[in-house]
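Notes to self after the Tuesday call (sharing in case useful).
The group wants a holo model before anyone commits to mutagenesis around the pocket. I volunteered. Ligand is pyridoxal-5'-phosphate. Logging inputs and output together so the record is complete.
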Amino acid sequence: MKYISTRDNTKEYNFEQVFIKGLADDGGLYVPKLLKKFSTEELLKFKNLNYNALSTEIITLFLEDFISKEDLSSLINKSYSTFREKEVVKISSIGEIKLLELFHGPTLAFKDVAMQLIGNLYEYYLSKNDKKINIVVATSGDTGAAAIESIKGKSNLNIFVLHPNNKISSVQRKLMTTVVENNVFNIAIDGNFDDCQNIVKNMFFDLEFSKSINMSGVNSINWARIIIQTVYYFYTYFRLDKKNLSFSVPTGNFGDIFAGYISKKMGLPINKLIVATNENDILHRAISKGDYISKKVKETISPSMDIQLASNFERLIYYINNSDSQITSNIMKKIKLNSYQIDKSSLEIIQKDFLSEACNKEETLSIIKKNYEENNKILDPHTAVGVGVAEKLSVNDCVVLSTAHPCKFPDAINEAINKHEKLPEELEHLLNKDENFEVLKNNTEEVKQFIKSRIK
Ligand SMILES: *Cc1c(COP(=O)(O)O)cnc(C)c1O
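Result:
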């Protein structure tokens, strides 16, 4: 499969470039030149496959020039052997709503589903290439832990994770900062997630710097994450055996829900993809009325969605504009100046596939409380936003992506139901371990210096 950049579709790339670089030199995001579309018959062949086999069938389409199907299959088996659920994900119910539980991996959030495999793909790549790679990633709380867990201890790889200082939960932080392997470096930035993401972008575009350290990225714009995440949309469709499912997806960087959009483009009969946001509602404003003006980031009880600049939205802009990279570039310039309004005809195209709503703090807490009292189920605050939005919109046959284990957000759970949700036994030891991280200013040069000093 060949790939192009959303900002210049005349140059072609292979998966290796897409995977290792993450972001195109022109600033655009990689997308496939042509997306495979399954016929109904082809889809039927996947119906009874288990999660790993289904993953292999779908992911191999995108990686065929990078790794053989056999090797991919064994990497997938190895990656998902770390999950507490044999079938990786689990589908449960609360009343009419289905929950797609994605948090049974080692760091208790959906990011593990993609990241466990990505760590092994790096290892596979480095076993064939004599190189050292430095991964630098910004996290709003969960990506970092998932990335560290998948990279720690692997040879020829270092990982540097930037998180917003004091703006993630203590469990989220400890999952990252108690890791002892010496190829793991945690940096707390005095700023918010968007600041962290900007520093990483600045470093990427400083080509002299990024080339000198063989910098690579695993943030949610990495195409590999998107395709790995499409698998659970397919899997849910086959297990529930219903046409026209809708998916309510707690959204920050527009990554997880974009995987749903790609699944639909690949022929999966999805009805609506529902963008569920917290008070950082730019994506809800955009999809409901075309307003893509970003505001100051608010701190909420669902910190992994405290984002104003949803990086993956660029891919949607590309697709709704008939894969026109010139138009996409122009729109991205407007977004940079914070002056983009989605025009009426584009909005109509978006609304064919997407719905949106937002939940504020009080609503989210009351969803957690209500589900605990009525269904004896504790929802994490991100999942609660997804459930609240699904209820507000009352769509039929709705699946909510349950993106994290509630124990990752003890303060929010305590505030909602006055109870402490315990960590799974195998993670309890975290709470008393020493933490190790460096606090740095919101300044790209300082972070560069830090990274250089550590890789010598
Ligand atoms: C990252 C994250 C999200 C948002 O996912 P995106 O791909 O950024 O839209 C939602 N919930 C949890 C728990 C997360 O960690």
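Two things stood out.
The chain is about 45% helix and 15% strand.
Residues 90-108+225-417 form a domain with the Rossmann fold fold (CATH 3.40.50.1100).
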